[in-house]
Known about the structure:
heterodimer; A: mainly beta; five-stranded mixed β-barrel; elongated; B: nine-stranded mixed sheet; two-stranded antiparallel ribbon
Amino acid sequence: MLRGSVIIGNRCAACGHVQLESFAVCPVCLGHEQTRDDLGSDATLYSFSILHTGSASQGLGYADLPCGARTLVALEAPFDRYACDARVTLRQEADRIIASLGTSHA
Amino acid sequence: MRECAIIGTGMIRFGRYPERSLGDIAFPAVLEALSEAEIEPNKIQAAWCGSALSGMMAGQRTLAKIGLSGIPIVNVENACASSATALNAAIQAIGAGEIEIALVLGAEKLTRFGGGTIPLDAEDPEVSRGLNMPALYAMRAQRYCHEWGIETAALAEVAVKARKHGALNPDAQMQSETTVEAVLESRPIADPLTLFQCCPTGDGAAALVVTSADYARRIGASAVTIATSELTSGRWTSGFRDMTSAEITKRGARIAFEQAGVGPEDIDVAEVHDAFTIAELLYYEAFGFAQPGEAIHLLRSGATSLGGRIPVNPSGGLLSKGHPVGASGAAQIVELVRQLQGRCGARQVEGAQVALAHVTGGGIAGFDHGACAIHILKR
């Protein structure tokens, strides 16, 4: 979820587990309470691929956030400058998280 | 737990049979397995059928074709590990003494989807955002090559080996050899993976007659014994996962080796889940055939080719034999039983005594894989 330019995640009130998707029951401790948490927008691209299985090429990757959560992201074109461990900035558009090269402080 | 054995195997050539029903695709494999076992259908006490994407009651739809009914028929879905999971279930029942003779079937008809990547569950949070199986493996490949300083083009060498083996297998979907250049020039699917680095989709079936080892001895069957049947599920996490290390397979391998009383150095031949080229390299390392980062060197040494120290995927593997999802686990066992019996002709691994089959299932968010089944067989 987007608030301003940051990604909002969900933190278990009992054990502190954080993930982007909301949960009815914490999958780590089975706690029922969660709080919304500002996860920032900076992340590291763990890996990525350019898919050619649809009508147009699409970039996908896994981005690791400083809080420890990992999320699947769509890469913003052009795709040729992405690399593993690249710093990326995340933003939410509808139900997708978009990654672009560089940090929010650059 | 009683020891179990396989006394009959059957499979059809994997390929594209859109004009046939699932039952029509699968029943010849069952007949072949029963014929090899030299038993009548009415001797089967229960059947397990692995099928992931071919609709309800795949087992009943197939076995009705040969009048095999009125017994417990259990349909098993565990993605690509479906029929290996079915075998595990049959072994549990026979091992516990509940039954003596079981049929295990794997059957799939992927041509019903027309083509493209296999459909995953749209409710999965990553699938709903565009993830498919080629993309998942491509990201593993990208990261593996990044961490170990390997040119992604090297992955093509896995496909060349697979196609060389598959060219010797009359049941393989792809029966022509290829070159590194042709692999790299084939259509891009998910960078760095090209078409020839992805298993072909298609239809297929494989069947096994499984009994207690005592029963096999009593009837004088040419049996292969099952040293272990290890089934596990992935461990969920929403955070960091090392995609270059196949967690579920490493964990399963450790347990399987311990249960069977063997180590990687004892395996004479293996069929591993090479759905994409990168997978075979990851599994060399997960099973201890190669040290981390050294898999490409093992491949290039020829050790995993026919004639090498530990031939991997002599059938051609999923890359060449084909991958009709629910049938693949049983088909691996068919290949290995025949290898241990010295029946594989031009692709025979001479003197093979111990064989390992490995299949994983499922691309779902938060898991390395949803399921992993490992069987170790002995002559």
